[in-house]
Amino acid sequence: MNVFITGGSRGIGRAVVLKFVKEGWGCAFTYARDKEAAEETVKLASGLNEKADIRFYRLDVKEPERIESLADKVIEDYENIRAVVNNAAVVRNNAAVLMSNEEWEEVLTTNLSGPFYVIRSFLMHFVSNKAGRIINISSLAQDGCSGQVNYAASKAGLIGLTRTLAKEYGPKGITSNVVTVGYVPTRMTEENLAANLHEFWMKHCPLKRIGSAEDIANLVYYLCSDQGGFINGEVIRVSGGLTYAP
Ligand SMILES: NC(=O)c1ccc[n+]([C@@H]2O[C@H](COP(=O)([O-])OP(=O)(O)OC[C@H]3O[C@@H](n4cnc5c(N)ncnc54)[C@H](OP(=O)(O)O)[C@@H]3O)[C@@H](O)[C@H]2O)c1
To answer: Among all residues, which ones are annotated catalytic?
Structure first.
């Protein structure tokens, strides 16, 4: 089995790559700018499974034509792709009243249009295989989060996208689900989130701990495995029971 993962060069995406490789899957992943980080992911993955078929490709998910040609290349390289994980995303925080068109558009294009372009590029392959798994990575911001009107709208949009695909392509043997992340320390959170987020999390999360990238990767893998085959159109939080963002 083979999987395609966007943004596997670091953070949660890297943990997803490592989980699939550990489970013996072939893994195609992308990076946008940080090639060294992508090479480090390959090094770590090869340490877990030296026979793993792992390859990385440069991709900006804002470029639909590039995604189409890359999907063709990945399908040619691997012959068969079973699952697509839309993990790559950005944040550009601002109060709604101050948010620029650029901040709005960059986040919506990367986080919502990007996953749509990726899915569309692999759908015919899944349809002809009569099998496929689509995972979209969201955030607790999907229900609203101060200072993140663009990010929250993009993640809420993924829910409508995913539930529609679940209905439209379920009959073709393709499942679509959202994995909603709580808080996992990564470059994204370090660079963009309030310094007191850790404190907020420890106070309000029922499990009294923050998440790990592996917590997310485990669910993504389960949903793509045979065991997850009857789960379709769901939005599943991995957040220790915390259900909202500040
Ligand atoms: N960390 C959290 O607490 C948290 C919470 C809620 C939701 N999430 C979600 O979890 C996912 C992963 O987040 P993370 O924290 O691991 O983020 P991260 O550390 O910032 O990693 C983001 C990844 O996305 C890639 N990327 C960025 N812009 C891209 C673009 N235009 N085209 C293609 N790839 C692009 C990056 O590639 P380069 O490094 O090569 O640029 C990198 O591999 C995201 O969907 C995020 O919204 C995270």
So the answer is: 151
22 alpha carbon, distance to own chain's centre? 18
> 60: Cβ below 6 Å to ligand 1?
yes
Please, what are the domains in the chain?
2-236 (3.40.50.720)
pLDDT tens series, the chain, 246 aa: 999 999 999 999 999 999 999 999 999 999 999 999 999 999 999 999 999 999 999 999 999 999 999 999 999 999 999 999 999 999 999 999 999 999 999 999 999 999 999 999 999 999 999 999 999 999 999 999 999 999 999 999 999 999 999 999 999 999 999 999 999 999 988 887 777 888 899 999 999 999 999 999 999 999 999 999 999 999 999 999 999 998
**Ligand 1 centroid, distance to 171 Cα (angstroms):** 31
Task: Tell me how many degrees the CA angle 59-10-238 measures, rounded to the nearest 5.
Answer: 110
Say if strands 26-31 and 2-5 run parallel, antiparallel, or are unpaired. Answer: parallel
pTM (2 d.p.): 0.98
Alpha-carbon distance of 44 to 24, in angstroms, equals 14
136 CB within 6 A, ligand 1: no
Ligand 1: which of 10, 67, 187 to mutate, most ligand atoms within 8 Å of CB?
A: 10
| Contact partners, residue 101, CB within 8 Å, separation at least 6 | none
Question: Which has the closest alpha carbon to 219: 166, 179, 182?
Answer: 179
DSSP label of 171: G
